[in-house]
Design a protein that fits this description.
Blueprint (H helix, E strand, L loop, with lengths): L6 E3 L4 H11 L3 E4 L5 H6 L7 E4 L9 E3 L5 E4 L4 H5 L2 H6 L1 H8 L4 H6 L2 H5 L12 H4 L30 H7 L3 E6 L2 E6 L19 E7 L5 E7 L10 E9 L4 E9 L6 E2 L1 H10 L3 H15 L9 H21 L7
Parallel strand pairs: 1-3, 2-3
Antiparallel strand pairs: 4-5, 5-8, 6-7, 6-8, 9-10, 10-11, 11-12
Helix pairs in contact: 5-9, 10-11, 11-12
The protein binds flavin-adenine dinucleotide.
Amino acid sequence: MQLPPFEYHRPASLDEALATLDRIGNDAAVLGGGTDLLINLKLRLERPAALLSVRELPELAGVSVDAAGTLRIGAGERLTDLATHPLILARHPGLAQAIRAVGSQHVRNMATLGGNLCLPTRCWYTNQSENWRGSQIPCWKTEGQVCHVIKTAPNCRAIHSADSVPALITLDARVLLRSSRGERELRLADFYRDDGIENNALLPGELITAVLIPPGRARSVFVKAAARTGLDYGYATLAGALTGSNRAPKSLLLVAGSVGTVPLLLHKPAQIILAQGLTEASIEAAADAAREDLGEVTNLFTPPGYKKRLVRGLVRRVLNDLRRQKLPDAD
Ligand SMILES: Cc1cc2nc3c(=O)[nH]c(=O)nc-3n(C[C@H](O)[C@H](O)[C@H](O)COP(=O)(O)OP(=O)(O)OC[C@H]3O[C@@H](n4cnc5c(N)ncnc54)[C@H](O)[C@@H]3O)c2cc1C
């Protein structure tokens, strides 16, 4: 498969990038590491006239902590560098695990955090060449009126499978968005939409410049079940972050990925742990309760019933790992 022709822009500053985005309008696509976007171009799922590379922009670089203890991660940072960054390893081991779970080492060497946060949803139908898709009925994403993953769905139910996202949501991360109109900040949990096509809140001409993680000492874990570790998207993933002790937990967030069109907060298991503490019995009860939060699970790569059983096992693993983990160092 060959790339279609496009103009290539490599602005030297964020202001130049935003001005170029405004000038070209909807025909421009933001390019991070290109590990997903270039494939989508080859599959003819997207047809931008111009690509605007943001990976080298100085304003999208760096990992730092401000005076209030907030961790800022530039959206142009490469995943390879983030997975081994001392600040991330020391404060947020679950986030480091999640970043390490993205694709292979080669993919992470190119991929950026901003690209992972804006990863389009996927399904078995759109993952094929234009010729192959032409032998089937088009779907919502390809100008048809059917969803190949959930036949009765009134919109696109392709799956959200960006591995860093569940981990960042458990840490209450926020995203910084910039356009020529100014800057705004959004909770990452509010950034995603339950629609496989318009899957996030980015406005035209806007890009992500950084992710902000508030201060706080939480134990954190990320686990992923995939066909081949070290390459594949997850059948299901689960991130957890816990504050307080095993006996008296203060807060617990559990977020599942690769089970639906948006990352999914699991309320029921968290309520059980907060009420009963982290014990063998409460972990079993929490794992059993996970099913109640799952609702409609996207039938992608595995049947939904299997995914529900899988999430039950992932909840058990995450809670056991959190129970054993030492509290990260103070800020
Ligand atoms: C073999 C293979 C395996 C993979 N496995 C996984 C996996 O297991 N888990 C996983 O999460 N991903 C996986 N991926 C997908 C992809 O590599 C990663 O999600 C990666 O992090 C995307 O980052 P990128 O910088 O390459 O994004 P790009 O491909 O450059 O861009 C992806 C999207 O983000 C947008 N974008 C990029 N940067 C910004 C920004 N700063 N602001 C706004 N929009 C932006 C682009 O316009 C595009 O829509 C895999 C890819 C391959 C090829």
